[in-house]
Amino acid sequence: MASSSSSTAKPMEAVRSGSVLSNVVTVLLLLSLGFVFGMVYNANFQESHLTPFLQPLPSLLRSSPTRSSPTPVVGCGVGPPSPSPTPPQAPPPARMGFADFLAPSGGGLAHNMTDEELFWRASMVPRVALVPRRIVPKVAFLFLVTGDMPLRPLWEKFFAGHEGLYSIYVHASPAYTGSPPADSVFYGRMIPSQVTNTSWGNMNLVDAERRLLGTALLDLGNARFALLSETCIPLLSFPAAYAFLTSANASFIDSFPTRKRHAPFFLRRNISRAQWRKGSQWFEMDRELAVDVVAEEQYMAVFRGDHGIANMLEHYMPTLVTLLGWGARAANRTLTYTDWPRPGPHPASYGVRDVTPELLEGMRRGNGECGSGASGAVEFCFMFARKFSGDALDKLLELAPKVMGFG
């Protein structure tokens, strides 16, 4: 009987062992299926939610190739979950070529940079002398205006037919909300301003000038920079002005010694009497000096201080010429004619009754410190003149072909 009981127990133990083994295999199979399912789901999740910061660099520079759907798991009866629809992604930025670095993208002037950011960017200078492609130099015309430009049609005649050789930048009073017509070369040339207010003789006008220069420096093709106002007119044709400016070795900044006033100011700030200067704010400068102007901060802080001087605008740039050692690189005169009658705090102005061929020719020839155009035929001392009112426009347009050589 004992032998019979022992032989019966062995099959029962075998059955129990087989049942446990079967349970273990079943559990392991379920765990394996769960692991595979989780891996497939995780891969699908990353495929659908990959952020730009996790994408490889090439996908940021060109369109990503179309990705195929994950392959279902074969033989297990389990497939990946259906991917959730994702919102359309903006196309990646196009590759930038050399030409994109020569001028702001699209030629637009809109940006939201602060003065500090703009001047930092504008003051960068290439250190390699030989550029990979010839850059045609342009003259940047910087218009510092209060509002509308009544003499705009005259300037449009001046620029006509010379596209690619000039750039236009306009800084208007913050209160101005107008705009030139869409067919004007001045349309869309208003720069974004950080100046909250502008007033005569104040350093906030220097802020506006520096922002004009900084924005123009973003275009690497701009080689010369001329500051003008809405009352300025050209006294030469564009070809004559362009030839002279792009071949000049000097910048034209009015700067002459003055010791009659403000001695306590400059002596307290370590500015010598020989360095203290005065002159016209209207300049024509090269790119190297323009970079120095936007990068300079030490003396800007000095001139912004509480100094009790009414018109710092006429002292800052002329004095900066000597402080930064520009003497050998800057001609001690401006190319913009202004008549300052004595006595009087304001320059002479000209209306329709004042405009004659003799007046314009006299302004152009000036006081005898003359240069000549590329042909040597046109002698001049001044390239621009101010201060003309809007009612003189028709007369100026009439005389432009005969006296100034354009229109």
From TrEMBL:
Transmembrane segments: 20-41
Name under which the protein is recorded: Glycosyltransferase
Pfam family membership, one: Branch
Region Disordered, residue ranges: 64-92
MF (Gene Ontology): glycosyltransferase activity
Membrane topology according to the record: Single-pass type II membrane protein
Organism for this UniProt entry: Triticum turgidum subsp. durum (Durum wheat)
GO cellular component, one term: membrane
UniProt keyword annotations, A-Z: Glycoprotein, Glycosyltransferase, Membrane, Transferase, Transmembrane, Transmembrane helix
Major localisation: membrane
Comp. bias regions, Low complexity: 64-75
